[in-house]
Amino acid sequence: MSATNHEPRTRGRLAALLAPPLLWLVLAYLGSLAVLLLSAFWTTDPFTSDVVHTWTTDNFRDILTTPVYRTVALRTLGIAVAVTLLDALLALPMAFFMARVAAGRLRRALLVAVLTPLWAGYLVKAYAWRVMLGEHGIVNAALAPLGLHGPGYGTAAVVLVLAYLWLPYMILPVQAALERLPAHQLEASADLGAGTVRTLRSVVAPAVRPALLAGSVFTFSLSLGDYLTVQIVGGRTQLLGNVIGSQVTLDLPLAAALSAVPVALVVCYLAAVRRAGALDSL
Amino acid sequence: MRNANPWKAAVAAGVLALVAACGSGGGTHDGGVAEQRSVGKGEGRVDIIAWAGYAEDGSNDPKADWVHPFEKQTGCKVNTKTAGTSDEMVSLMKTGQYDTVSASGDATLRLIAAGDVAPVNTRLVPNYRDIFSGLKMRPFNSKDGKMYGIPHGRGANLLMYRTDKVSPAPDSWKAVFDGAAKYAGKVTAYDSPIYIADAALYLMKTRPALGIKDPYALDRTQLNASVALLKKQRQQIGEYWSEYQKEVTAFKGGDSVLGTTWQVIANTAAAEKAPVKAVLPKEGATGWSDTWMVSAKAAHPNCAYKWLNWIVSPKVNAQVAEYFGEAPANRKACKETADPRHCDVYHADDESYYRRVHFWTTPVPQCLDGRKNVKCTDYAEWTRAWTEIKG
Questions:
Q1: Chain A residue with minimal CA distance to B391?
Q2: Residue A139: its pLDDT value, please?
Q3: Which of these, A94, A270, A272, lies nearest to A174 by C-alpha position?
Q4: Does the bond joining B314 to the residue before it have cis omega, within 30 degrees of 0?
Q5: CA-based nearest distance A237→chain B, Å
């Protein structure tokens, strides 16, 4: 109600306040995206790698017809999905325990434990995993008594390390949603004779779903754009980011066209999440 | 203050016109960029693109500092931009904001062709006299009989193996190609399109029917054969490496037991007690030879020439070579190294050793081996092929 009653002066001030960040967003962010997309329609001089400004759709045709780009795109998508699922599986019980079971000092300690890794550098954490997953690393040493062998470097290691890196982004929104869940709803569910499973399905799940989807936007899009973890623990695999990186100085238009692939994937994912209603509560 | 700007602009435009006029006058070769005639007073600043370890100012290791003494002696303040790959160097040089670059052979020809670098007047670099003759006037640092830079140092891409895991000791690249299955999942290779030349070199010796004369001059058929070999090799690869510390840890931990390396990696790994050895296989090897080139648009050409002379001066060249782990370019540097054996370890004055090394060169459509009846594959094609090999 009050929002529609603003005095013209207040509105002017509001506009003045919002204009610089909005301008920044449009120019720096959307503008650079537009330039990126535009340059995907150019081509390069094959030897000097100078960009030649002639309009062509060859780059997109190359991407669609070259099998290796499809393979890499699908692999990247698969890894992003796997990381998201793994994070959801790990985050749910963890967040539930933090929000509904642990109390006082324990809850605070757990929150700190989840947040602390965010303060450490990305590369430090990735290299720590490289050491742990190595032939004589702690993972193999721990599994040896069971007669098992760790995943080594490769796709599985990439999923594992990315899931570790992005886990806090999944735990925090889910934990917040669970904390907001009123206790009397759970009590009412129990009073009405629902068992644990029924309460989880009918009361907890609807409350957590938007948070889970919001968290998955982070884990999914961050995984889609990653290219360093795969260099450190990925063994011989490559992701979209690596292919883009190898082309960016040599054939900028092709790199730009390749960059459109993860952008398109993220936009599709966001649209799907929006349809599921997860963005309404943001 | 406000009306000072048009003046500044006018002066700048005048200077630019002057530079352009000087640049186009007297250029006799196709690039149209003339070499410098004299070195005058320094401009007070020089902008450098360098490999990590080439322009140390003591911030990484207090003992490694040859930038501050240069600044003190010449009054040219050094502004260094470290580049991670040859491709990055090429794109940085295109901005025209840098005076000089320590380019490897897989970047030099691209820079020359694009007119980004000027030929270097070697008479203005007194220390050029003492550079090993094996480094002068090579296809990757000269064009039409003109040097396009001052050689800095060189090294071979060797074959390294864990002495406790690999037996018998390999003496051929066969170990990482046709024989790689024996060490499946533990073989490593250099992660760059230029590594295709390693496969081509192996095919040059093992499949003479392909007619490869120069591993950097591959026609379509020869490239396809190399790609096929590398795709087969990929099945046995544990991981590719591009960052040298990554390979050190991989060999130390036993994740890699066999694969291509640099001398400095072998030394570091051995110093960290990894049982490794590096050899130059009987087929020879690929290698790299770096050259300090001067930008065609250098804003500080005098300081750039002073830097060129400084970085290959015996003492500094010895310091860089030891810090980075390579063979120095200056013969007199061998007497200046802290470790008296440095030049022996890196075969600095062993020309017969380096005759077996095919230095990185940018693959170009005009076949480098002199064939006229066929078009060779260029670096862009190699890059696409490399993406395909890695799958």
A1: A68
A2: 92
A3: A94
A4: no
A5: 7
Contact flag B387-A231 (C-beta cutoff 8 Å) = no
Structure confidence by residue, pLDDT tens digits, B178-233: 999 999 999 999 998 999 999 999 999 999 999 999 999 999 999 999 999 999 99
Largest Cα–Cα distance in chain B?
Answer: 78
**Strand ranges in chain A using DSSP code E only, listed in sequence order:** 43-44, 51-52
Q: CA of B114, closest CA in chain A: separation in Å?
A: 5
The mean pLDDT value for A48-67 works out to 86
Instruction: Calculate how close chain A gets to B389, using CA atoms only, in Å.
Output: 9
Query: d(Cα B254, Cα B238) in Å, to the nearest integer?
Result: 11
Backbone angles phi, psi at B161, to 5 degrees: -150, 155
DSSP characters over A81-136: HHHHHHHHHHHHHHHHIIIII--HHHHHHHHHHHHGGGGS-HHHHHHHHHHHHSTT
Whether residues B234 and A246 touch (CB distance < 8 A) is answered with no
Q: Minimal Cα–Cα distance from A64 to chain B, Å?
A: 14
- Model confidence at B4, pLDDT cuts 50, 70, 90, reads very low
Which value does ipTM take for this structure?
Answer: 0.82
Q: For residue A241, what is the nearest residue in chain B, using CA coordinates?
A: B387
| B49 vs B92: CA distance, rounded Å | 8
User: Taking the domains of chain A in order of start, what are their residue ranges?
Assistant: 68-276
- Model pLDDT for residues B91-119, shown as the tens digit of each residue: 899 889 999 999 998 899 889 988 899 99
Q: Choose among B278, B260, B279: nearest CA to B269.
A: B278
For residue B254, give the nearest of A50, A136, A243 by CB distance.
A136
Q: Are the C-beta atoms of residues B259 and B159 closer than 8 Å to each other?
A: yes
Tell me the CATH number for domain A68-276: 1.10.3720.10
| Number of CB pairs, chain A paired with chain B, less than 8 A apart | 86
This prediction has a pTM of 0.82
Residue with tokens 């920044």: A24
- Chain A residue with minimal CA distance to B189? A236
- In this predicted structure, the answer to whether residue A2 has a pLDDT above a threshold of 80 is no
Both tokens assigned to B154: 């060189």
Residues from chain A contacting residue B246 (CB–CB below 8 Å): 232
Mutate to test the interface with B, among A250, A252, A261 (most CBs of B within 10 A): A250
Cβ within 8 Å of residue B62, ≥6 positions away: none
| Cross-chain residue pair A153–B365, CB shorter than 8 Å | no
Nearest CA-CA distance, residue B247 and chain A, Å:
11
Give me A189's structure tokens.
């569910």
C-beta separation of B103 from B291 below 8 A: yes
Give the range with max mean pLDDT: A101-110, A184-193, B230-239, B365-374: B230-239
Q: What is the pLDDT of residues B357-380, one digit of tens each?
A: 999 988 888 898 888 899 999 888
> Residue A206 — pLDDT band, cuts 50, 70, 90?
confident
* Cβ distance of B387 and A250 shorter than 8 Å: no
Largest distance between two CA atoms of chain A: 76
